[in-house]
Write a structure and sequence with these properties.
Blueprint: H1 2-8, E1 14-18, H2 29-38, E2 51-57, E3 60-69, E4 78-88, E5 91-102, E6 105-114
Length: 139
């Protein structure tokens, strides 16, 4: 089940979900509870064929972002989208999740986008004495 799967995810890991077609009747109560623990406030509001996306960090419910759009009809084009920037060991990474209804056809996308103009330098020396404005020379 989804609840069991979420239980197995280590704390601190990113969790991203999107509805593909129908989640309101297919999500078990235990799964909804687990999603609320991660930070969802919309999961209990899902109605028939709503479009919904969610990104969060297990163990940090304040980091969650989500969007839910009510379904209007089968031919209306709607897209729910969430982009969340996380800073990790290698720099900033955007997690982008979309769920769309395009001319009656559901579609979901998940993507990661690294901020290419950023660099992370891992130093083994103690840098506690460094001050703003100090220069670092890399060779």
């Amino acid at each position: 089940s989804l609840a069991t799967f979420i239980d197995q995810i280590p704390s601190g890991k990113i969790v991203a979900l999107a509805t593909f077609d129908e989640a309101s009747r297919n999500l078990e109560t235990s799964a909804k509870e687990k999603l609320k623990e991660i930070g969802s406030v919309e999961v209990d509001s899902l109605a028939l064929r709503d479009i919904w996306v969610f990104v969060g960090i297990k163990g940090d419910p304040g980091a969650a972002a989500e969007q839910r759009l009510p379904r209007t009809d089968s031919q209306t084009t709607s897209t729910a989208s969430v982009t969340v920037t996380f800073n990790d060991f290698f720099g900033a990474v955007d997690v982008i999740v979309t769920s769309s209804l395009l001319e009656g056809q559901p579609r979901c996308t998940f993507s990661l986008d690294r901020h290419a103009d950023e660099y992370i330098i891992n130093l083994k020396d103690d840098v506690s004495s460094w001050q703003p404005g100090d220069h670092i020379v890399l060779a």
